[in-house]
Amino acid sequence: MTPKELRALSRPKIRKLARHGKLMDTTFKVFQRAVYPGAAPDQVNALRIAFFAGAQEINALLLASLDEEEDPTNGDLDFMSHWRAEIERFQERAIAVMKATRGRAN
User: Fold this and answer.
1) pLDDT(106) > 70
2) Are residues 90 and 106 in the same domain?
3) Where does the pLDDT of residue 20 fall: very low under 50, low under 70, confident under 90, or very high at 90 and above?
4) pLDDT digits (tens, 9 = 90+) for 39-76
5) Which end of the chain has fewer CB atoms surrounding its CB within 10 Å, N or C?
6) DSSP 51-87
């Protein structure tokens, strides 16, 4: 399945979750189960706070730094591209560390 096909399949579910106010919660649960499957309830609560705080910070940064025009500008697109690349680099490093750590534990 191509990334485009995957997006086409997942987009309706993502939008439905957003309409019902459950997108971030569902995303957090998937993340938590993948990264910290055996976490204690207090750890899950702390992780949830950090996860949502990070999401809110991205939202605030987007709102504060986009150009004040109806359509996205080249500056808007550049801005989003740069922070998205930063997040993707972090994710790639985190996944590599997780894989290496799990490999040593086995």
Assistant:
1) no
2) yes
3) very high
4) 999 999 999 999 999 999 988 988 888 888 888 889 88
5) C
6) HHHHHHHHHHHHHHHS-SSSSPPHHHHHHHHHHHHHH
Query: Which pairs with CB-CB distance under 8 Å and at least 24 residues apart come from 93-98?
Result: 98/35
Domain match, 11 and 56 both: yes
Provide the mean pLDDT of the chain.
86
Do 97 and 54 belong to one domain?
no
From the list 37, 13, 16, 17, the residue with the least C-alpha distance to 25 is: 17
Same domain, 72 and 60: no
43, 36 in Cβ contact below 8 A? yes
Query: What tokens does 66 get?
Result: 């986009």
Same domain, 48 and 81: no
Q: Cα(first)–Cα(last) distance of the chain, in Å?
A: 31
Does 6 have pLDDT greater than 80? no
Q: Are residues 35 and 72 in the same domain?
A: no
Are 49 and 74 in the same domain? no
